[in-house]
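Lecture 7, part B: from sequences to assemblies.

Below are the input chains for today's worked example.
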Amino acid sequence: AQKITQTQPGMFVQEKEAVTLDCTYDTSDPSYGLFWYKQPSSGEMIFLIYQGSYDQQNATEGRYSLNFQKARKSANLVISASQLGDSAMYFCAMREGRSNTGKLIFGQGTTLQVKP
Amino acid sequence: EAGVAQSPRYKIIEKRQSVAFWCNPISGHATLYWYQQILGQGPKLLIQFQNNGVVDDSQLPKDRFSAERLKGVDSTLKIQPAKLEDSAVYLCASSLSRGTLNEKLFFGSGTQLSVL
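Predicted structure of the full complex, as structure tokens:
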């Protein structure tokens, strides 16, 4: 079964507008961490934001915020004021607390294109 | 601080040939990961090292793939013999440890392998 699901293969957004990238996850572990990474065409995965399952508030990092809905098991990434440089693939990932390896499990990714 | 270094950047080989990829993690990072990213998919963990010991190699096709991290620093991933379905980007990542939920992975730019 897929642990991380990103249902939007591709998204378009107009420059300066906000966009939401969806991520749902599946785990029975009460302790887990959720990550978002950006992968531009250069190939390197860049960490954007982290949300812990016990965090009371939604995480924010500059123009990035995470809309964390625990009961729905969703962790959507919101990018405000989109810029042309935001065009990239975006991956949601999860680490389960009970994992003795601490490995990150990634979703399939969403390609975001920012239009000028 | 220097990032994760990988080489080569691109490699084209014919099926049944062998190939090797090299990774040098961030200095002081104990945990090293090799991920395989097939076009249009999210990264899949192949093998994870803690210092020079293997923590997880459950998804490594051991009949053809091998990896080592002899001195607990840099690592080599080898494929022998290569198959067409091995065409992918091979990403190396490192982290300080594997013990905490919010531990970030830092990625290299990857090696793009094409098997003809």
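Note for the exam: The interface with chain B takes residues 4, 6, 31-33, 35, 37, 42-47, 50, 52, 91, 93, 95, 97, 101-109 of chain A (CB under 8 Å). Keep this in mind when comparing with the next example.
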